[in-house]
Write a structure and sequence with these properties.
Layout (H helix, E strand, L loop, with lengths): L3 E7 L12 H10 L4 E7 L3 H5 L3 E3 L2 E9 L6 E4 L11 H10 L3 E4 L27 E6 H7 L4 H9 L10 H10 L6 E5 L5 E3 L6 E3 L2 H4 L3 E7 L6 H14 L2 E5 L9 E6 L2 E4 L4 E3 L5 E16 L2 E14 L4 E11 L2 E8 L2 E4 L7
Length: about 350
């Protein structure tokens, strides 16, 4: 098969680091959620790669990356055979992962911490930095926990956590747009799921249990091919992630399958998510949503077209980094729902850094 959209989750933790569940339990939750793939990223270890091994269970492909986890400057690594050493400087462990042919994403780059629980920020502040694949634009746990204001808001947020997500940090979106002026920077969403247990006895609550989390902040990836061969499927997934051929969404609000965003002209194939192509005056942008939503097309981080519905088009008035954001009405307000990776329309003579 080619041109296939697959759906899955990135960034999760098991008992190999600080998660509550076993790999097998998490895998089962992903399978019950009908995910095509799941990439676990335990802190500073790839032990499950050796102990369990990457494989399909049912229709779900389980892959193992790791999260390099010094006090700040966490790095998600997909496709390595050895987790880089967190005691090294950030540029060194990025370079180490890259030398292994792995993808690297700066995890929760503007994490707020949890003042309510006196948990510090795990932000990314090691700049300048070169050679990384992209950014974790939307981190579910950081989003949910960073906006808790007190006990009352925490209790309300525990009842339906995914409905209390505020969306990507504005600073992260701004950083993404700025970096995209210089080169392709892939954006992903991460669950950062641990299935944290709080309280005791009859007052026990779980923050994003695995089975619930697997139905929330998901990545929708356009792969060139997909098969039951583990090596081939893994290669297809990592290639598509590295190319930026994905959008991500809070699937609890609505399924985001079949969401498309393209730059089209009559005499050439359309430019897809992640493409870097020369700007042309005949190009037009077309966004299509599977459900009616508040649609916005942005150029270099600024909206150039906005409407409510399931279709939105806009002319391209010059070179830029173009992406889309979608929000859904819920409880009298618009909630962040889906975000596409950019299409990069470059000026003549542009050289990506």
């Amino acid at each position: 098969m080619s041109g296939l959209e697959i759906v899955g989750a990135l960034h999760g933790h098991s008992r190999y680091s600080d998660g509550r569940g076993t790999v097998e339990e998490i895998w089962e939750a992903a399978q019950e959620a009908h995910l095509d793939f799941l990439v676990l990223t335990d802190h500073d270890t790839l032990a499950p790669l050796e102990d369990v091994g990457e494989a399909f269970q049912g229709s779900t492909l389980m892959l193992f990356g790791c999260e390099v986890s010094p006090p700040t400057n966490h790095l998600l690594v997909f496709g390595a055979t050895r987790c880089p050493d967190r005691s090294q400087a950030p540029q060194v462990y990025v370079d180490d992962a890259r030398a292994q042919g792995a993808l690297t994403f700066l995890a929760h780059p503007h994490d707020r911490g949890v003042p309510l629980a006196r948990i510090p920020s795990y932000r990314w502040d090691a700049w300048p930095l070169e050679g990384f694949t992209g950014l974790e634009i939307w981190n579910q746990l950081s989003d949910w926990s960073g906006h808790l204001k007190g006990l009352g808001s925490a209790v309300q947020a525990l009842r339906r956590p995914a409905a209390h997500l505020a969306g990507p940090e504005p600073q992260t979106l701004s950083l993404w747009d700025a970096l995209g002026q210089e080169r392709k920077v892939v954006g992903i969403a991460g669950l950062d799921v641990h299935d944290v247990q709080v309280g005791r006895g009859p007052l026990v609550a779980h923050i994003f249990p695995y089975a619930y989390a697997m139905r929330t902040l998901l990545c929708y990836v356009d792969v060139e091919a997909w098969s039951r061969d583990v090596a081939e499927a893994k290669g297809s997934l990592l290639a598509a992630l590295g190319a930026g051929r994905l959008h991500f969404a809070n699937a609890e609000l609505a399924d985001a399958r079949n969401l498309t965003f393209q730059a089209e002209r009559r005499d050439a194939p359309p430019a897809r998510l992640g493409d870097e192509v020369p700007w042309h005056s005949a190009l037009a942008l077309h966004l299509a949503s599977p459900v009616a939503a508040d649609l916005a097309i942005l150029k270099d981080g600024r909206p150039i077209a906005q409407a409510f519905g399931d279709r939105l088009s806009a002319p391209v008035d010059g070179p830029g980094v173009y992406r889309a954001e979608l929000r859904l009405p819920c409880g009298g307000r618009l909630l962040p729902w889906a975000f596409t990776n950019p299409i990069y329309l470059r000026p003549e003579g542009f050289a990506s850094r």
